[in-house]
UniProtKB/TrEMBL annotation:
Keywords recorded for this protein, A-Z: Endonuclease, Exonuclease, Hydrolase, Nuclease, Signal
Transcription among keywords: no
Record InterPro entries: Endo/exonu/phosph_ase_sf (IPR036691), Endo/exonuclease/phosphatase (IPR005135), GPI-anchor_lipid_remodeler (IPR051916)
Annotated protein name in UniProt: Endonuclease/exonuclease/phosphatase
Organism: Rufibacter immobilis
Lineage: Bacteria, Pseudomonadati, Bacteroidota, Cytophagia, Cytophagales
Length: 280
């Protein structure tokens, strides 16, 4: 697949366009200090569906700082966000991925799934470490289902000791019928199988453990939880649908901890974090 890169000299922002993408996506560095040296032995990874920064208890309100505060308290190295607005009417024209990254002093990549309300809507990656080779993979949907277009956004992460890995964020189809989710997870597995780098994947899979979708995920990746605590709804949660998973042919990843964060105001999903050890 042929792709091209356009380097914008002002703002040090890299824009990526690909034939699979059909639109430009933004990849931006965090402010100064995002390259700080760190003795590297583990990664703290977060998956968070942020509901376009709208607290479910306050319809119409955008509270971006509540999302930022929730993320900051966990001090993650990598964050996969879903339901991110970029310059939409309902979110006041704010580039949410860029603004969240700026407040957290992190690098970011936003991947557009759809055009929405004069702006864009999709998923994003945040990273304490430099991002490169960002790609938006369009995921399949059966035409007759009229499902909302879905994507997998990935980027290469370069860690302080020079180690590189592939990090991805996704948000699978939400329809009751699982046909699109299973098509989409098969495509993600196909992408991951062709990737030579270690692969960390996080997101909202709209499927629970034991379903066909998660069984397919488990054939190619290792989830950071097996008996997974529920992530929705935020009040009295009953279902686990937000996951972090990894794929490393060399077997160098292992899970130190996995937890669901009991933050019930900022979004309609509870965030998930995991500490992943990396063996040298």
């Amino acid at each position: 697949m042929r792709s091209f890169l356009i380097f914008l000299l002002t703002g040090a922002t890299l824009w990526v366009a690909s034939c699979a993408n059909t639109s430009h996506q933004s990849l931006g560095p965090g402010p100064g200090g995002a390259h700080e040296a760190k003795k590297f032995s583990s990664l703290t990874v977060m998956a968070y569906n942020i509901h376009h920064c709208n607290p479910p208890s306050k319809p119409g309100l955008i509270d971006l700082e509540a999302i930022v505060s929730t993320i900051r308290k966990q001090a993650p190295d990598l964050v996969a966000l879903q339901e991110v607005d970029v310059r939409t009417e309902r979110s006041g024209g704010v580039h949410q991925a860029e603004e969240i990254a700026k407040r957290l002093n992190m690098h970011f990549f936003f991947g557009k799934a759809i055009d929405f309300q004069g702006g864009e809507y999709g998923v994003a990656l945040l990273s304490r470490y430099p991002l490169s080779e960002a790609i938006v993979h369009r995921l399949p949907t059966k035409a007759e289902t009229k499902g909302e277009p879905r994507i997998l956004a990935t980027a290469k992460v370069t860690l302080p000791d020079g180690t590189t890995l592939r990090f991805g964020s996704t948000h699978l189809d939400a329809q009751r019928d699982s046909v699109n989710r299973e098509l989409q997870i098969r495509e993600i597995v196909k992408v991951a199988s062709a990737e030579p780098l270690p692969f960390l994947l996080a997101g909202d899979f709209n499927a629970t453990p034991g379903t066909g979708t998660i069984n397919l995920l488990d054939q190619a990746f290792t989830r950071t939880c097996q008996e997974c605590a529920p992530t929705i709804p935020v009040l009295k949660p009953t279902k686990a649908i937000d996951f972090i998973a990894y794929r490393h042919p060399g077997g160098k990843f292992s899970v130190s901890s996995h937890k669901v964060i009991p933050e019930t105001y900022a979004s309609d999903h509870l965030p998930v974090t995991a500490i992943i050890r990396v063996q040298k």
